[in-house]
Amino acid sequence: MMEPLVLFRALMDETRLRCLVLMVNEGELCVCELGYALGVVQPKISRHLALLRQSGLVQDRRVGHWVHYRIHPDLPSWATTILKATAEGNLAMEPFSDDQARLRTMADRPGRCAGFAEVTT
Amino acid sequence: MMEPLVLFRALMDETRLRCLVLMVNEGELCVCELGYALGVVQPKISRHLALLRQSGLVQDRRVGHWVHYRIHPDLPSWATTILKATAEGNLAMEPFSDDQARLRTMADRPGRCAGFAEVTT
DNA sequence: ATCAGATATACTGTCAACCATATATCTACC
DNA sequence: GGTAGATATATGGTTGACAGTATATCTGAT
């Protein structure tokens, strides 16, 4: 049901906010993609994603080695509105613009096969 | 210019969130009205309003004994969108619904003259 | 079964936020 | 000038959040 205080508490941390903005704009992303895009060590990303998951803001899905996260599809509409407004209103600004640019430079992104060759570990 | 982290940090506290929702729905309100509506002691209200003011989220205006606060008119549109979405999406829920109802029961609200007689101290 | 890659959790120290009470400021009025 | 009402700030104490490092888990392949 998503209490507003839970939502805002989740959005208050820079790492979590950057992850969420990236997910709003890019859809599903795995931990390693988020860590690469933000330039942040994996345990830190993971810890913050756990809080987002516990808060009901994101949903996770295991795919082989990787765990993919996305904005939870069952959020109430006012919460979705807030996430989208935040992403759109700040997409051109630091650090969000850089995160997106850096993600684009990442090679061998899981789930995104280069051509038809399967990307193995 | 309103950094998103500043906004969400401000929205993260229950007292501040209730004040903001009330201001979104009712317009300008003074400290005593907010304190009455929330059932919260004055120094607490004042402290949180100071943070909202310093964050650029609200604007204050002195009128005689009273200081009136309102949502800052120069907020970027994405921030306004967030405030309105929060207020609309939660207006029917606790504790926001009660705050509004309690405000309506307040007698001698400053600025709101009962009839045409001026309301003095 | 073992090993490596990907992700999650635990532990410790530090710092910021909150509350409650008390006190200070500022305005209007006498 | 002095007083009262309305609002603001200061202080002390407590709690909760975050960072960094180390370690555990889980999956897939050899």
What is the element layout, followed by pairings?
The structure is a homodimer of 121-residue chains.
Chain A: H1 4-11, H2 14-26, E1 29-30, H3 31-38, H4 42-54, E2 58-63, E3 66-71, H5 77-90, H6 96-104
Helix pairs in contact in A: 2-5, 3-4, 3-6
Chain A binds a DNA duplex (30 and 30 nucleotides) through α4.
- By oligomeric state, this entry counts as homodimer
CATH-defined fold name of chain A: Arc Repressor Mutant, subunit A
Distance between the termini of chain A: 39 Å
The strand count of chain A comes to 3
Strand order, main sheet of chain A: write it out: 1-3-2
As a whole number of angstroms, the C-alpha radius of gyration of chain A is 14 Å
Helix content of chain A: 40-55%
- Average pLDDT score of chain A: 90
SSE string of chain A: HHEHHEEHH
Number of helices of chain A: 6
Reported for the largest beta sheet of chain A, the result is: 3 strands, antiparallel
How does the helix and strand content of chain A classify structurally?
mainly alpha
- What would the principal axes of the Cα set say about the shape of chain A? globular
CATH architectural label of chain A: Orthogonal Bundle
Low-confidence stretches of chain A: 114-121
Q: What percentage of amino acids of chain A are in beta strands?
A: 5-15%
Compute the number of structural domains of chain A.
1
Per CATH, the superfamily of chain A is: Winged helix-like DNA-binding domain superfamily/Winged helix DNA-binding domain
